[in-house]
Amino acid sequence: MDPQSHSQSPPPAAEDDPDAMPREQQQREEAPPGYVPPMSPEEVAAVEALLGYEFKDKSLVGEALTHGSFYLPYRSGDSTYERLEYLGDGVLTCLVSREVFLTYPDLPPGPLTRLRAANVDKEKLARVAVDHGINRFLRHKAPKLEEQIADFVKELGQYEYHSNGLLDAPKVLSDIVESLIGAIYVDSKYNQEQVWQVFRNLADPLISLETLGKHPVSELLEFGQKTGRIVDISKDGWVKDTKVDVFVDGVLVASATYAQKKEIASNRAAKAALDKLKEMSGQSDVQSAPAEAPEPLDELDHYGALELQ
Amino acid sequence: MDPQSHSQSPPPAAEDDPDAMPREQQQREEAPPGYVPPMSPEEVAAVEALLGYEFKDKSLVGEALTHGSFYLPYRSGDSTYERLEYLGDGVLTCLVSREVFLTYPDLPPGPLTRLRAANVDKEKLARVAVDHGINRFLRHKAPKLEEQIADFVKELGQYEYHSNGLLDAPKVLSDIVESLIGAIYVDSKYNQEQVWQVFRNLADPLISLETLGKHPVSELLEFGQKTGRIVDISKDGWVKDTKVDVFVDGVLVASATYAQKKEIASNRAAKAALDKLKEMSGQSDVQSAPAEAPEPLDELDHYGALELQ
C-alpha cells in the first residue's frame, strides 16, 4: 500500500538531480506541521464501507490509520493515530458502560466492570479489526507488525469469543479500531449514537455474561481453594528459559513457555494444568467455563480480582 | 439525616407490640426488590441546586447518594450508588478525554492520558464533593466514613489543586460525584452535553498542564538520574512500623509513616526527601514543579510511567 502515490498535489519531480530527496520525503518537508499524507479516495471509500460510516472530513481516515513507523524518520509533531485512539478509548468506555448497564439492570458493579473491560479490551478489539479486515488499511513501515498480526490471525480461530489471556493480541490492531471510533466521534461532532451504531455492528456479538468465560489463572486458584490443594504457579524458570510451571500439592502438573510475556506464559501454563486436572479427575472436581453459566453472579465473584489485573 | 422520616407512605405503626420490627426495617421488608428509601423533597431540591440540574426522576438522587451501609443489614439487591458510579465513571472518562483532546490540539497521547487520569481521579473528584458540600447528603451508617472525610477535609487546604499522592482521599467521596454524574446521564436520556455542563461547573478549575504538578516519587527518581545519585525508597520498615525510608547514596535523607497505605507513606517520604534535598542544595540541582512549566511536554515525559501506576 503506498498512499503517497495517490497524493493530490505532487511536488515537481527532480529526477535529474542525484542529490535530490526522494519525492515522498521532499513532499513531507514542504508540508505544514501535523500534515497527514492522504489516503487514496478508493481506500477511504473502502474503509467507509466496512465501517458503515461516511466521513465529512476524509483526512481523519488517514490519520486514524497511520502508525508512527509510516514516517521514516519520525519527526515530533507528525500525525499518527494515537490522539484519535486516546479519544476513541474514552468514548468506547462510556458507550460500552451504558450498554452493559442497560442490558443487565440488576447486575452488581463488579461484573458490570468486568463486562466493560472485556469489551474494551485489546484482544476483543483486535478481533474486530481482523474480522472486518481493518488491518489491511494500516499504514506503517514496520515489517515486524505484519508478522505479529499474521501470528495472531493464525491462532484466533481456536477461541470462539475470547482466549481469556492465552493469546497475545498485537496492540496496533486494537489501537486502529479505537482510533477509527475516535475519528467518527470527531467527524460526527461528538455524536455518541452514531459512534455506537458503528461500533455495535463491528463488535457483534459483544461479550456477554454467558460468553465472558473464565481466566485460567483464576480458575486454577479457585480449583485449589475448592479442593483444598496447594496450587503454585512458579515463575522461577522464567529467566532461564521463559518457562512457567504449575505445581499442585508439590507435583509438577504442567508448564508453558512464551518468550514475549510472562503473563501469557502463566495463563497458558494454568490452562494446560486445568486441562490435565480435568482429564485426570474425569471432570469430577474441576469445572470448565460452562457455555451457559447457571449462576453467573456467584461464579463471577470468584475470579474478579485476578481478571482485572 | 434520616430520610426515612420523610418517606411518603409509612406503614402502620406497631408501637404497642414489643416484638415488632422497627418501622424502618418493616417498611423495607414490605418493599419490592431494588427499592430505594426516598430522600425528602427538600433534600432532593438542595442537591439539585448544588448540581445545577433538575431531575425528572427524583429517585435517582436518592440512589446516587446511598451507601451500602445505609441498609443494615444489607440484602443482595438493595440499591446503592455503585451501579450509577460505574456509569458515571464511564461518561466522565469520555467527556474529560474530549475536553483535554480539544484543549490541547497538539499534545501527544502520553500527556493527554495523564491529564485525563488527573481529572477523573479519586482525589480530584473527592475535592469536588467537598468543595460543593455534596458529602453532606451521603446516606450511610458507617461512622468511620465521617472520620475519614473529616481528616481529608482538614488536610485538603494544604494543596491548591492536587496533592499528587500525598493525601489519601476517601473513595466514597469520589464515588458519589461519579454516581450523581451517572444519574444525570440516565435522567437526561444519555445527553452527554448536559452531563458535561454540570461537571464542568462542579470541577472548575480542571487540572491543566500547568497545574498537573509532579508526582514526588517520580520527581525523586528523576533527580537521581539527573545527578547520578543512587536513590533508594526502602519499604523494609513497613511491616514493623509502617515506615518508608529514603536513602540517597546510602545516606538516610527522610522517612514517613502512614499506617493505612504503603503507597501514601512512600509518596510522603519522597516529598520529605525532595524538600530536604532542595534545602541542602539551595535549589541548585533539584527543581520543584514550576507554576508555569516552561517546557511542559519534555517534563511530562520523565514521570509518566510512575504517575499512572
UniProtKB/TrEMBL annotation, chains A, B:
Organism annotation: Triticum aestivum
Cellular component GO terms, alphabetical: cytoplasm; nucleus
GO molecular function: metal ion binding; ribonuclease III activity; RNA binding
Comp. bias regions, Basic and acidic residues: 20-31, 299-309
GO BP term, example: siRNA processing
Disordered: annotated segments: 1-40, 281-309
InterPro entries listed in its UniProt record: RNase_III_dom (IPR000999), RNase_III_sf (IPR036389)
PANTHER family listed in its UniProt record: DICER-RELATED, RNASE II-LIKE 1
Keywords: Endonuclease, Hydrolase, Magnesium, Manganese, Metal-binding, Nuclease, RNA-binding
RNase III domain boundaries: 44-189
CDD domains reported in the protein's UniProt record: RIBOc
This protein's record includes keyword Lipid biosynthesis: no
Name of protein: RNase III domain-containing protein
